Amino acid sequence: MFREKNVNAPFFSVVIPTHNRAEMLREAIRSVLGQSFQEFEMLVVDDYSTDHTKEVVGSFNDDRVVYIMNDRGAGGAGTRNAGIFRARGKWVAFLDDDDIWLPQKLTVLHGKILEDGGSAGIIYTGAISYDFEKERELQPRIPDKEGQLDRKLLCNNCIGSFSAVAIRTDLLIHVGGLDEDFTALQDRELYTRIARLTRVAYVKTVLSYIRVANTDRISFSPKKKLESSLLYWRKNRALINGDPKLRHKAASRVFLFALQDGDLKESVKAFPWTAAGLVVDLPNARHTLRSVYALYRSKLALLLKSYSATRKIIFRLKRARSRQW
C-alpha cells in the first residue's frame, strides 16, 4: 500500500533494490543505520529473492527499515520504482544492495542541499571502487561536472553509480521514475531525463564504496548493455543523430557491445559511424580501437593456448600409435 505524504515525513527516503544478496544487503543496511544524519526512512525492495533476504531485513529492530516486495516489473528499474513511488522523503537517495555508504554521507548531502538552495534536483558525490574481500580501496571517481548536464549525459554517464546519487522526489515522480524497458544503463537514462528539468550539483568527497569483483552485476552482461545502448539511442535519436560526435560515440558503444556479445549484424550496422570517429572524434576512435584490440587479444591468447594443447595431444597420440606398431 502506498503511504500518504505528511508533515512528519523524513528528509531522505533511502531506496535499496535487492535480489538474492542477503549478506551483502546486511552490510548495506548497517551502513545506512550508521549514518550521522538520522532523518530518513529506508525502503528495501525485494525483487523476489529466494534466499533469506526477508529475514535479514526483519532482523533490524528499527521502524524506519521497511521491507517491500516488488510489485512492478522485474529487474533493477522496476524494483527501484517500487521504492520511488512509496517514498515519503523530500529526496530519494539510492543505494545498491552490494555497496555501502560512509557514515557522513547523508549529513554531507543534507548540508549541500541546504547550501544549494533548491536550484539542483540531482546531487552526486565522490565514490570509490572497493574490494571488500581484500578490504582495499581501488579506483576513485571524483565528480567534476555540474550545471546543465543533459547534453553531456548524451555523450556518457558523467554522474556515475546510483549509490552516489540523490534526486528530488517530486522530479522522480514527475518523469515517471525509471524506464522499465531498460535492463542496463538505467541510471544514465534516468539522469538524462531529469537533467533536462534541473541543474546537477556535486560533492567531491568520497562517500560511497562501490563493490568490485561481483560478477552477477548487470555491468558484466554485454547482451543487456547492447540492447539498452540501442534503446537509449532510439529514445534520443534526434539529438544524438544531429551531432556527428554524439552519433559516433553512440555507434562505437553499440559496436563494442555487439562484438562482446558476438552479434555480427549489429556490429556491422554500427561500424560506419564508429569509423567516422577517425574524423569527428579521434581520441574516442583510438579508445575504441584499443578496446577492440584488448577484446581480440584475449580471445587470440585463448585460441593459441588451445592450439598448443591440441598439438601436444596429437603428438602424444602419434607417439603412442608408433609404439603399438
Structural class assignment: alpha/beta
User: What name does the CATH topology of the largest domain carry?
Assistant: Spore Coat Polysaccharide Biosynthesis Protein SpsA, Chain A
User: How many separate domains make up the residues?
Assistant: 2
**What is the class of the largest domain in the CATH system?**
Alpha Beta
Which second-level CATH architecture of the largest domain applies? Alpha-Beta Complex
Shape, principal axes of CA atoms = globular
Largest sheet: 9 strands, mixed
Number of distinct helices: 13
In CATH terms, the superfamily of the largest domain is Spore Coat Polysaccharide Biosynthesis Protein SpsA, Chain A
SSE topology string: EHEHEHEEHEEHEHHEHHHHHH
The proportion of strand residues reads 15-25%
Overall helicity: 40-55%
What would the average pLDDT be, to the nearest integer? Answer: 91
- The radius of gyration computed from the alpha-carbon positions, rounded to a whole number of angstroms, is 23 Å
Q: How many strand units?
A: 9
